[in-house]
Design goal:
This protein is of the alpha+beta class. It is built from four helices and four strands, in the order αβαβαββα. It has a four-stranded mixed sheet with strand order 2-1-3-4. Strand 1, helix 2 and strand 2 form a beta-alpha-beta unit. The longest helix is centred in the middle third of the chain and has 17 residues. The radius of gyration is 17 Å and the shape is globular.
């Protein structure tokens, strides 16, 4: 098997090293100021500050104010957290207070096998 060019290998190794420095782009879709919305916003902000401090951009979208955004992203349930970067795109729907579920959804940890 041919050896990959040195620059490709170096780029791959750099990507692996920089994995823990990846910038996250997140969109949280909520419905107004309902208790579920407030709980979801609070939970995701705490998770981001604890696990992604200084390397995330969180946009909170109220679907009452911007229904076109929910339609564009095909959001049918709230709250929904959409991770657009780093790839792959992920959607986490429902209870964002479940820390393991959110961390797995953000690809920050591997799912624990039972």
């Amino acid at each position: 098997m041919p050896k990959p060019p040195e620059d490709v290998t170096q780029a791959f190794e750099k990507a692996l090293r920089d994995k823990d420095k990846a910038e996250y782009e997140l969109r949280l879709y909520v419905t107004g100021t309902s208790p579920k919305s407030i709980k979801a916003i609070s939970a995701i902000k705490e998770i981001c500050e604890t696990h992604l401090a200084g390397r995330y951009d969180l946009q909170v979208i109220d679907t009452y104010q911007k229904p076109h955004m929910a339609k564009k992203d095909q959001i049918i349930a709230m709250p929904t957290l959409v991770k657009t970067l780093p790839h792959p795109l992920r959607r986490i729907i429902g209870d964002l207070t479940n820390l393991e579920k959110v961390l797995v959804g953000l690809d920050l940890i591997k799912k624990q096998e039972d």
